[in-house]
Design brief:
The chain is α+β, with helices and mostly antiparallel strands. 37% of the residues lie in helices and 20% in strands. Among the domains are: 276-342 and 351-487, DNA ligase/mRNA capping enzyme (D-amino Acid Aminotransferase, Chain A, domain 1, 2-Layer Sandwich); 499-640, OB fold (Dihydrolipoamide Acetyltransferase, E2P) (Beta Barrel), CATH 2.40.50.140. Helix 2 packs across helix 10 (170-183). The strands form five sheets. Strands 15, 16, 17, 18, 19, 20, 21 and 24 form an eight-stranded mixed sheet that branches. Strands 5, 6, 7, 8, 9, 10 and 11 form a seven-stranded mixed sheet that branches. The chain has a five-stranded mixed sheet with strand order 3-14-13-4-12. Bound molecules: adenosine-5'-triphosphate (ATP). Residues 276-277, 298-301, 305, 321, 364, 403, 439, 466, 487 line the site of adenosine-5'-triphosphate (ATP). Its EC number is 6.5.1.1. Keywords: ATP-binding, Cell cycle, Cell division, DNA damage, DNA recombination, DNA repair, DNA replication, Ligase, Nucleotide-binding, Nucleus.
Length: 645
C-alpha cells in the first residue's frame, strides 16, 4: 500500500479539529486496508499512533533534529546551514523537508514509498547500533527522503520526531478502528452480530461502533501490544478478539516473529495498562463521593509504581507506570522475589505460597531503611541508577508494597471486586519485613478515623491515602483514571486537590541572583483533543539555587529556535523548549486567566484556566508528555473547585 495514501489522510486529519470527523476519516482508511490489504493493518495502525513497538520493548528511534537535517541535506544536496536557517524561519522541520524536496531534480524516479517500507525503515533506524549507527541512521532516513512525494517528507520528519501533529491520539485511533470494524468486519470468521447495513439503522450502527471500540480498548489495555492485537483482530474478528487478547503473564512458549520488523516478541510478561486515581480535596469529599458504598483506605506510598509479573518458569518482570520494562533497574527486587519462589517448596520463608505458579501484582516500590525499619523519602529512590544496575552496587534498598492482585495461577482477577482481589493477595503471599509488604489499610467510614489514618500515613513518609471501593463497582479498570480509586494527598488539603504534571514549554532568563540560569518557566497541560499544549502558569518558586542550575543545564538540551506550533499560549518567552520534559507543580487554586489557555473555549470563549501561586514539587522523569495532566483534568479540577466553594 503506498505511503502516500496515509500521508494524504494525515493532511486531511490536520485540517479538522473535530474529533468525530477525524474518527470518520481514519475509519475510512482502516476500512480500505481491512478490505484490500488486511496484513498491512498493523503497520498502518502503528504509523497512525506514531509508534514503532510497545513501550516495554524499549525500542527508540534515537534521532534528533541534527540527524534529520543532515539526512535532508544529503538527500537534496542542500547545505546544512541553509536547512538550519530555513528551520529557524519556519519553525517546522517537516515543512522545510517538503520545500527542500520540491527543489530537487532526479534522473530516475525512485521507488515509491510503501507503508511497509516506511515502517521497516523506521525499525531499522531504531535498531542501528554501534560506532557506525549515526551514519547508518542518516543513510536510512536519506533513502526515505529521496523517495518521498507530495507531503510525505513532512510526515516522515514527524515520525522521526515522535509527534505527528495531526490532532490524533491513540484513543482516537482505537475509536476509528471500532468504527471501521462496524462497517467492514475484518474477520475470516463471520461476525456474531449481523452487521449488514441494510438491517441496521444509524443508532444501532453507532451502538455497534461503541461496542467494538470498547472491545478493542479492552484488548489493548490488557495486552498493550499491537503486534498481538491487530493480527488477532484480522484473523478472528472483533467478536472473538478478547478471547485471544487478554491479561496473561504466562508463557514462554508463545513466541512469534513480527512480520514487519522481524523482531522476536515473547507474549510473556506483557504489562497491562495501570489503573489510576481521581484526586479529592479532603475527607468531606471522600464521604460525599462514596456515600452508601463500602470502601477502604490505604497508605499512598511515595515511590515508583511496579507491576510485577511472576511467570511459571520463575521469571520475574517489573514494569513501570508507563509500561516500560524496569526489570533491569531492580535486580535486588527480582532476586528476592525469585529466591523466595525457589525456596518456597523447602521453607516457609517465602512471599509465595507453594501452590502459586503465576501472578501479576500491582505495587509501589519505595526506598527503605532496613536498619531503622522505615520508609525513606521519594528523593532517595531517585538516586538509584536507572539502567544496568548491578545488585552488588545497590546502596538504596527498596521494599515493595503490594496493593492489588490482577492475575493468579492462570486466572484473571480484573473483573473481581477489590475485596476479593485483596483477600486473594493476602492469602497468596507472605510479607517479609523490609522487602515485601502489603499496603497498610483500614476499612472505616468514620471521619475521625479517616483523619487519623491520613495523619498516620503522613507520619510514615507517605504521600497521603488512597480510598478504594470494595464490593460494588470495584473491578480493576486498566488504563482508566477511575472514580473507584480516590487519592487524597497531604498537599491537597491546602491546595486545589492535586498536584499537576506539566510540560515545560518555555523559560525567561533569570535576573539578580538567578543571572545565568533560567529564572522562570512557562508550563502547560496536554490537550489530546487538539494534540497541543496549553499554557497554565509561569513558575519561579520551589527551586533551590542548585536545582535552578541543574534544571537550566537539562533544559538547554531541549531549546528550539521558535515557539513550537503546537503551543497555545499568549505568553511570549525568549526561550522555547521542545515538548519533552514534565514537572510536578503544586498551586493554591485555579483561576480564569487572559494569558493562559488551559481549556480555552470550554471554560470561557477566549480565556483559559491559569494556576495561582504555582510551585515546583519535583521532576517527573517517569512521565512522558503524553502522561502530563490533560486539559480535561484541569477543567475537572477547576469545576470541582467551584463546586467545593
Ligand atoms: P501521582 O503523582 O499521585 O503519583 P499518578 O498520575 O502517577 O499521580 P495517580 O493515579 O494519580 O497516579 O495516583 C496513584 C499512584 O499512587 C499510583 O500510580 C501508584 O504509583 C501510587 N500509589 C501508592 N500507593 C498506592 C496504593 N495503595 N494504591 C494505589 N496506588 C498507590
Amino acid at each position: 500500500m503506498p505511503y502516500l495514501v496515509v500521508a494524504r489522510v494525515f493532511e486531511k486529519l490536520a485540517k479538522t479539529t473535530k474529533r468525530l470527523e477525524k474518527i470518520d476519516i481514519m475509519a475510512c482508511l482502516f476500512r480500505s486496508v481491512i478490505l484490500l490489504r488486511p496484513t498491512e493493518l498493523l503497520a498502518v495502525v502503528y504509523l497512525c499512533c506514531n509508534q514503532i513497538a510497545p513501550p516495554y520493548v524499549g525500542l527508540e528511534l534515537g534521532v534528533g533534529d541534527q540527524v534529520i537535517m543532515k539526512s535532508l541535506g544529503e538527500s537534496t544536496g542542500r547545505s546544512l546551514n541553509d536547512i538550519k536557517s530555513d528551520f529557524t524561519k519556519a519553525g517546522d522541520l517537516g515543512v522545510v523537508a517538503v520545500a527542500s524536496r520540491s527543489r530537487q531534480c532526479t534522473i530516475f524516479a525512485p521507488r515509491m514509498l510503501t507503508v511497509q517500507s516506511v515502517f521497516s525503515t523506521l525499525i531499522s533506524v531504531a535498531n542501528s547500533e554501534g560506532k557506525q549507527s549515526m551514519t547508518q541512521k542518516v543513510r536510512l532516513i536519506q533513502s526515505l527522503f529521496v523517495a518521498s512525494r507530495e507531503t510525505e517528507a513532512k510526515f516522515i520528519v514527524r515520525h522521526l520526531q515522535g509527534k505527528l501533529r495531526i490532532g490524533v491520539n491513540e484513543q482516537t485511533v482505537l475509536a476509528a478502528l471500532g468504527r471501521a470494524c462496524a462497517f467492514t468486519p475484518p474477520a475470516k470468521v463471520p461476525p456474531v452480530v449481523d452487521m449488514s447495513k441494510e438491517l441496521m439503522n444509524s443508532e444501532q450502527m453507532e451502538e455497534l461502533e461503541c461496542h467494538n471500540t470498547a472491545l478493542i480498548k479492552k484488548a489493548v489495555c490488557e495486552l498493550p501490544n499491537y503486534e498481538l492485537v491487530i493480527p488477532a483482530l484480522v484473523r478472528y474478528g472483533i467478536d472473538h478478539l478478547n478471547e485471544h487478547c487478554h491479561i496473561s503473564p504466562e508463557c514462554n512458549t508463545i513466541v512469534y516473529v513480527c512480520v514487519l520488523c522481524k523482531m522476536i516478541y515473547f507474549k510473556q510478561g506483557v504489562p497491562i495498562k495501570v489503573m489510576l486515581a481521581k484526586p479529592t480535596k479532603g475527607i468531606a469529599e471522600i464521604l460525599e463521593r462514596f456515600k452508601s458504598m463500602k470502601f477502604t483506605l490505604e497508605f499512598k506510598y511515595d515511590g515508583e509504581r511496579a507491576q510485577i509479573h511472576i511467570l511459571s518458569d520463575g521469571t520475574v518482570k517489573i514494569f513501570s507506570r508507563n509500561a516500560e520494562n524496569a526489570t533491569a533497574k531492580f535486580p535486588d527486587l527480582v532476586n528476592s522475589i525469585r529466591k523466595v519462589k525457589c525456596n518456597c517448596k523447602k521453607k516457609k520463608k517465602s512471599h509465595l505460597k507453594p501452590d502459586i505458579t503465576s501472578a501479576i501484582i500491582d505495587s509501589e516500590v519505595v526506598a527503605y531503611d532496613r536498619k531503622e525499619h522505615k520508609i525513606l523519602p521519594f528523593q532517595q529512590l531517585t538516586t538509584r541508577k536507572r539502567k544496568d544496575v548491578n545488585e552488588a552496587d545497590v546502596t538504596v534498598q527498596v521494599c515493595v508494597y503490594a496493593f492489588d492482585l490482577l492475575f493468579i495461577n492462570g486466572q484473571s482477577l480484573l473483573s473481581e471486586p477489590f475485596e476479593v482481589r485483596r483477600s486473594k493477595m493476602h492469602q497468596a503471599f507472605e510479607p517479609k519485613q523490609g522487602e515485601f509488604a502489603f499496603a497498610h489499610y483500614k476499612d472505616t467510614t468514620d471521619p475521625e478515623e479517616i483523619q487519623q489514618f491520613l495523619d498516620l500515613a503522613v507520619e510514615a513518609c507517605c504521600e497521603g491515602i488512597m480510598v478504594k471501593t470494595l464490593d460494588i463497582d470495584a473491578t480493576y479498570e486498566p488504563a482508566k483514571r477511575s472514580r473507584k480509586w480516590l487519592k487524597c494527598k497531604k498537599d491537597y488539603l491546602d491546595g486545589v486537590g492535586d498536584t499537576l504534571d506539566l510540560v515545560v514549554m518555555g523559560a525567561f532568563h533569570g535576573t539578580g541572583k538567578r543571572t545565568g540560569t533560567y529564572g522562570t518557566y512557562l508550563l502547560g497541560c496536554c490537550n489530546s483533543e487538539n494534540d497541543n499544549f496549553q499554557s497554565l502558569c509561569k513558575c519561579a518558586t520551589g527551586f533551590s539555587d542548585e536545582q535552578l542550575k541543574e534544571l537550566t543545564d537539562v533544559m538547554k538540551n531541549h531549546v528550539v529556535g521558535k515557539k513550537p506550533s503546537e503551543y497555545e499560549t499568549h505568553m511570549d518567552c525568549p526561550i522555547w523548549f521542545e515538548p519533552k520534559i514534565v514537572w510536578e507543580i503544586k498551586c493554591a487554586d485555579l483561576t480564569i486567566s487572559p494569558v493562559h489557555c488551559g481549556g480555552v473555549g470550554v471554560v470561557h470563549e477566549s480565556k483559559g484556566i491559569g494556576l495561582r501561586f504555582p510551585r515546583l514539587v519535583r521532576k517527573r522523569d517517569d512521565k512522558s508528555v503524553d502522561d502530563a495532566t490533560s486539559t480535561d483534568q484541569v477543567i475537572e479540577m477547576f469545576q470541582n473547585q467551584k463546586h467545593m466553594q
